[in-house]
Amino acid sequence: MNKKVYMINGPNLNLLGTRQPEIYGHTTLKNIEETCVSISKTLNIDLELSQSNHEGELIEIIQSARDKVEGIIINPGAFSHTSVAILDALNVYEGLVLEVHISNIHKREDFRHKSFVSLRADGVICGFGVSGYEIALRHMATILI
Ligand code: CA2
Q1: Is 111 helix (H, G, I), strand (E, B) or coil?
Q2: Cα(131)–Cα(121) distance, rounded to whole angstroms?
Q3: Using one digit for the tens of pLDDT, what is the confidence trace for 1-28?
Q4: pTM of the complete model beyond 0.70
Q5: Domains along the sequence of the chain with CATH
Q6: Where are the alpha helices (DSSP H) in 43-102?
Q7: Ligand 1 pocket at CB < 6 A
């Protein structure tokens, strides 16, 4: 049977491909999601996609992952650096958590160097551009299947 995985994107990632291409590239979130859904089919994964600009909504999505999906791939955007509430929600979740950042957060401003989510993540991918999502998905498949 297929494994179920959430791919969650946080604030402003709906703008990918439209602004700041020097940092985030030209690929849109829709492109990323389509590519990942197509790859997930070859990996026997049912991928459920979401994006929200709202912290509370992201927490509700993470809470709904319990007893529903075996893994979460999450780019929490700027909430990575600020949200203890998202960390708390992830700490309740028992499946595999992979954190993705498109940019290399360690090469950027000091305030981006710390991620609360990394305190829970089983793996962190950053600085690989939008390929980070695909890398996370393939890793998820090797662990789950
Ligand atoms: O590198 C990443 O993936 C980040 O999670 C992206 C966040 C940033 O706050 C983190 O420090 C690192 C920002 C996402 C904003 O995305 C935009 C995309 C296009 C145009 C404007 C914003």
Answers
A1: helix
A2: 18
A3: 999 999 999 999 999 999 899 989 999 9
A4: yes
A5: 3-144 (3.40.50.9100)
A6: 55-64, 84-92
A7: 12-13, 15-16, 19-20, 24, 75, 77-78, 80, 101-103, 105, 112
